[in-house]
Fold each of these.
Amino acid sequence: MKGTIPGYRTEIALRKTILLGKDEVTIQGRADGLHPDGSYDEIKSTYRPGSLVRKLESDPHHPYWLQLACYRWMSAESHDATEEIPDRLIVVDARSLECETLDARHWTPDDFESWLVKRLEAIIKREGERRAFVKRQKKLAGLLAFPFTEVRSGQQGFMDEINATCRAKGRLLGQAPTGIGKSLGSLFPALKYAMEGGTKVAFLTPKNSQFTVAENAAQQLAKSVPLRSITLVAKAKLCLNDEVNCTPESCPYAKGHYDKVADSGLLRKLSRRAVLTPQSIKAIAKKHQVCPYTLSMQLIPRRDVLISDYNHAFSPESNLRAKMAGADLEAPRPVVLVDEAHNLPDRARDHWSGSLKVADAEGTRWHRALAKILSTGATTHPDPDKLNRIATKMLDAILDESAGPVEKTRERANLDLELFFAVRRFTALLSASIERDHFFLRNPQPGMWEVHCLDAAAYIAEKFEDFSSIIAFSATLKPLDFYRNELGLTRPADKAIEWASPFDAVNQKTILIPQVSTLWREREQNYGKIASAIQRIVAMKTGHYMAFFPSFAFLDQMAARLSPGDIEILTQVPGQSLRDTAAMLERFREPLPGKTLLMLAVQGGTFAEGIDLPGDQLIGAFIVGPGLPAVTPVREKMREYFEKKYGAGFDYAYTYPAMAKSVQAAGRVIRNGDDRGIVVLMDRRFSDVSSMASLPAHWIDHIHEARPGESLAGHINDFWT
Ligand code: SF4
């Protein structure tokens, strides 16, 4: 236009200052073009011009109209107020460069000023709240106190290291045994540091079932100061409807959510609640007829502690830092505590892996096009650019149809959307995987492709950048170097520490029986030996025992060979419901004087992690074989990859992950200082150097390895008497 209209100017800088109470606010911007008659052009380029034009025509509050209205308001003083000046929005098709011009007609300068003043007042209010939040935190930091008069053995050293790490903005990997008081011991120093600096703490766990320990720790700390914690779960888990459909037309809780929250003063009222759990948020939201998920999002920036699943921090699309900061773009980075950190490498690998198959497009119009791309030969991977083009077309169609008059069935619209997200996610993974050896791309069947992330350390490290200090801890982080590498905590200044157990090591009798083998090819000959050893050992002392096997198939073989006699046997089954699991645990916890109870379960399963069975609830555990991951093409690729990278392929791909499960399962036995119990490791592979390197130090000093022909009865009886 510059060349065709005499006097036409481009890139016009505009600026205006207004007074709001005692605050002076300056607004500035740059208009794309100015005509000699004083009218402005704003040019917007898009790949979906039809969709944008429809939105602009139906929404007078669209940000582009507000932008033009702002230019007019900023230059209003230079014109006669009665004069109509035809500002224009020019929508350019980014592909064809064709233009459509829309005349601005929605806003007068006075209307815009009223709107603007309201917005600015809200922003100023929010900034005031933010400053008050930081001031409050700094004040509370001095008052925050450890809630007990005595610190547990080993806990002070643990807290001191965390305190030092936070102050150095450092990164710490900590093998911290049961009983050290990890949750409270990590949250207390981290929160104190965070509050002093006007920031927050994210406490992340691998499973929702582990939130309670963090919530309890927050509740304990709330005795000294009115701190605020919130636990975040996925939208589907918080939703008050049977199906998540968040439009105001479909969901009564979405309709008028923000007005209802503002009118009821809910955010202010909830600032007096120390611990907000998903259950309490759901109940509050239901009472006020608002959406619990949106309410959670509004609350997070106002809380000192956020408890959540790893997903919210480590999935590719997650942005926990932004959620915690809210509108505060200057917010300092929070501190992150990663509980049960031995789970994070696999979880992150899962986040960076995915698959797409032609069948995913069944029932949609994209079926043929996807089949063409995905049915490439086994040696030629699908072209990410072609998939990207399909995703773009899908998005165009979805947006056009949602903005247009065509009424689609809900079911079809959902299918299209689901497929769009699946294609987009897979395309991103596919593009990331090309020519990167930490990915493995495979075509397990015609029309299906899988991308497997073999090593997610770089992605975890990237996500860690969102936090000022990183504290990753667990009772199962050995060998420390393996987890340092897996978690990307490999800077020279990163610390890795193993703390001693606070319990007397003699309270756990660890027996290694290398005379049995659980190797696949030798299992058949060993089933009987293993069953009879278990049976003999549990007969020596009445009580509750657990036997952990490498798989359900192995467990079934044992269940068939163990004779109940005087003992009651409880058996975990594949895909057991939550209700059955809880019932089984309840039965197991029941004191049954004079009766022996034996639970058969799998390593890595529900009963092997995060279950607390103190005192007589569990007096012995049999760990039958290190449950090595199955040999699959993906596992074998991992082995090759880690062999090349660290010269320890088998250990990284098989031994260490298996040993983490074995140690976790055995860790159910000693839960506090008064507990006594036996741990029986059954398989010669437990005596390998790599397996031994995975054991906590306090086990190694007291382990008894059975010699050929040796009777263990004396050792075990001595321990019990
Ligand atoms: S708005 Fe909230 S309550 Fe309504 S469907 Fe969405 S998540 Fe569920």
Amino acid sequence: MISANPCPEGINDRNRRAYAGIALKYAGPEPAEDDPEMRERCRALFCRSIKGKNVLEIGCGPGVDSHYLHKKGLNVTATDFCDEFVDIVKDRFPEIHAHKMDMTRPDLSGESFDGIYAFASLIHLPRELASGTLQGLRKLLKKEGVLFMTLIDSSIHREYVIPNWGNQENNPMLFTCWRQDEIELLLKSAGFGKIEFHNIGSALYENLPRLVERGVTNYQILAFI
Ligand SMILES: C[S@@+](CC[C@H](N)C(=O)[O-])C[C@H]1O[C@@H](n2cnc3c(N)ncnc32)[C@H](O)[C@@H]1O
């Protein structure tokens, strides 16, 4: 039984430790994509929407999307709050600038990115930290910048904890489910203007037992300044 941690910063830190323990396993022995077709469609949507070449990835994990965006000719900064992932990206893709950064405390220069790519990273963000985090990300974007996110919603949960994330005993991971009207309000309050919702399907994720049993669905957002 996982005891509830009342401090959202503590939960964020607990998430980081949980990823640290499984980062090598999560990354696999070599770069690979879980659902290449879905990822390709997400990246294409993002690439069509950005007005310049400076791109920041938030929660890059082992870096497959940063690598792809770099190959498309973009100037990519790959970030994650987990040292282990940053080291994996540096090792596998030395041509990419990888930097340790917690999205709740961005430490990069303001107005320096044309686009931010966040694939399945804000799914772990404690709800209480969302408003400040989105405001911080908004400040990193240039005037016509865009934020891309994939998020989850659930017909059953507002949030849930998987106690043995990565099949590791006592390795709790928080999943935050975002209703579309809720995240839209937060994005508008953070200073974003036009918001687009997309549903890029994935046979893999739509049939994953741990998602099906929790009523979880994925969707994508483009938030423009
Ligand atoms: C589901 S994984 C997705 C990884 C990668 N985007 C991909 O698609 O393979 C979530 C990632 O978000 C990162 N993450 C979670 N919370 C974060 C935070 N507060 N700041 C930065 N990275 C975070 C995790 O370390 C992990 O790499």
